[in-house]
Input
Amino acid sequence: MTKQPERIFIKGNEAIARGALAARCKCFFGYPITPQNDIPEFMSTEIIKAGGDFVQAESEVAAANMLLGAAAAGIRSMTSSSSPGMSLKQEAISYMAGSEVPAVIVNVNRGGPGLGDIGPAQGDYYQSTRGGGHGDYRHFTLAPGNVQEAYDLTIRAFDIAFEHRTPVLILADAILGQMKEPITPWTPEKIDDEAGRDWAITGKTADREKRLIKSLFLAEGELAEQNKHLQAKYESWTKLTECEQFETEDADLIICAYGSIARIAKSTVRKFRKEGKKVGLFRPITLYPFPSAQLKALAEQDKRFLTIEHNLGQMVDDVRLAIRTVSDSDFFPIYPGNLPTPDELEEPILKCLEGK
Amino acid sequence: MSEINEKLVFDKPEIIIDRATHYCPGCHHGIAHRLVGELLDEMELGGNTLMTTSIGCSVFLYNYLNVDAVEAPHGRAPAVATGVKRARPDHFVFTYQGDGDLASIGMAEIMHAANRGEKISVVFVNNTVYGMTGGQMAPTTLIGQKTTTCPNGRCETTQGSPIRMTEIIASLGGVAYAARGSLDSVKNIRTAKKHLKKAFECQTNGTGFGFVELLSGCPTNWKMTPLQANERIQNDMIPYFPLGVFKDISEDGGIC
Amino acid sequence: MSRIVVQEDRCKGCLLCTTVCPVNIIVQSDRFNVSGYKVAEVPESDAEKCTGCASCALICPDVAIKVYRTPKTKGGK
Output
């Protein structure tokens, strides 16, 4: 990669949009919803300047289906939304997973259920990691923890999408989307704009069979085969898990948290470390596939775990599944609607550290 | 002597795949497929076509036309086709949708694709019933028509009136061409093909969005013979869904 | 002389073709095809009457009819 020397001071939402352009995203389909509006607003002019196209769709349903169309055509494309809008996109995401087309979807998570609020939350973890629509499927889910990472992971998301022919979700939240930080933008050295040449619909030529992007498998045994194939694909992703470990080596207690909450928890961990308390942080960067192996390796070192999430307890299931044969995890919820400070995390962490 | 000079004057279009369809006897989808196929051949569009299929009986259209295709969720074909066209603007993109798909669950998508003036073509097959799912009431079901979900006949007071899509589409700004044809007679089939050709040309010459509704028979779900079904189109459908061209701006040089 | 060829394995016996023939020579045969449909045919005795207008082929929902025409030649019959 060629690092450009410049530093820019931008919001997380803009970093995602700029990352997409650096990854040569050519089509963007958006619909207004807070707190992700900076993304379609930025794209409405910038992707056109970059030689691409922008559509403000009539709904999130339509935006996601436009994405399905552009993805089927093998073109690097993206949509973004926020929690209530993500519910509407699930139909098309299920179809994209079923028909194996590459696309990048951004969810700037806000409070729920229902309209909830427009503040940060992590209530969409299950939806983001279990295949939020109908049917048995998963998609890749990346959870950036700062603005630079939002930029970097967006570029990665396009590569993963095309390499594995899958929708890739970037799960941010209102804090990350609206927070400004200096970042170093960069451009990937090599991008294959025609990466879909072997499968995308490009017009049937005399030298090949017609191509069909579909998720309907009616013939006997066909759907079972497809599900088996998808399952094998998802299993192959376990080697691609990523996480950040901070002060975990000699820690007695590991805090498990992702995204913005991991960042807040990191401040608390830093403070406790100064006081000599043996606390560490485990931050999954890939939420699906979940970095279970890395977590289990820590559990085998006889450490204790506390999962902190901005919801009522969702990722803690994955933490427990990962370490179930050797350990368990406590859980501390931050209720969506509240925004915690590092100080507020001290008490639950101390309690765990002292064995309650 | 005569055998030597004999010419084949009517045959399957090249682009139609040589296989039996799954449609019921007398179903008009086969006619609509053939008209589309003839035009793709005549206009030499086959190699450039990216087709968007929909949900309903015509979901298997991709088994009958030898072109690249993507299968859209129920009602979303105009949105999917928008994505395809924006991604590959040099290609010929069309959707093929039934009345349940287009006029009910996909109402938002068709209205806005039309209003944006997407450079796509839409083939809308209206047979006043949900065929694939077993003959339920559609948004185009006629008043008094019996279906499995209005067994006593569609009642205007509680179930509303059949929607005239072509008239609605014609009223939208982005639309270059909107017409309604019928597949019940030789004369109407010939006219329907002219409508389709015009709609396709609106895309190939960059004029804009083209929409053609085709009144079609569904003998099975109307519980009629194919011959009775064709009579019903003449006697009941055409009086409510008048045939003709409702908008054609191609003559005026098009929209930007 | 003109003639039609009904591809019998494609014919579904809907009989729409029989309603549009200007010389009324297409009828339902006694033969069932592999799908169990009684196929349409032009009886041998009426074959000469076909005008090659292709109306039957135009209305056939199953693209099951081919139409052949022989142009009139000088001194032809």
